[in-house]
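This part of the workshop introduces the protein records we will be handling. A record pairs a protein's sequence with a compact description of its fold. Comparing a sequence with its tokens is the quickest way to learn the format. To make this concrete, we reproduce a full record directly below:
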Amino acid sequence: MTHRQPRLRRLLPYAVLAALGGIGATPAAAQIALGGGSGRYSFGGGISAGAGDVSFLMVAPYLSYRVTEEVEVGASLFYRLRNDTRFGRDLNTQDAGGSVFGRYHLPGPFFAQAEVEYLNYDVYRSNLSTYRKNATGLLAGGGVSQPLGANASAHLMLLYNFSYGGYSAPAPYSSPWVLRAGIGIRF
């Protein structure tokens, strides 16, 4: 077991960041991604959770294709259950969406990413009835990926939602910044 301790120590900062991942963006708290691919295709996903007055659980599978050593394109879907207790009773909602993304692998552990995201989410009215709302977002930013052995890596990315100011109230995000952290396992 002692041969695994250095890997776990290297992973600790990413785990802390993953646990804090909800800072500034409701959908991106505590994300753990499983997937990767030593070939051209990569399949995996993420599980996100947040707890508090507004708690949620999200599942987000993805599929990507490595066009060249530097360029990767892919698509992701997500489904999120939310529970809001701020109004004296449990209010439960369901959100769904997807995105297409492009990632450019820079020298070293760094990458740049851009994505277009579509969301369909529940919104509560003042009488606590719900209606569905759609939103499309353009996100871009960068990240770092740290190898954790031959077939695994940890990653951290910070994206800016350029569509944030254009959302009509109530907006699907609490901030234009989206922080994501995860662990990828290549197969």
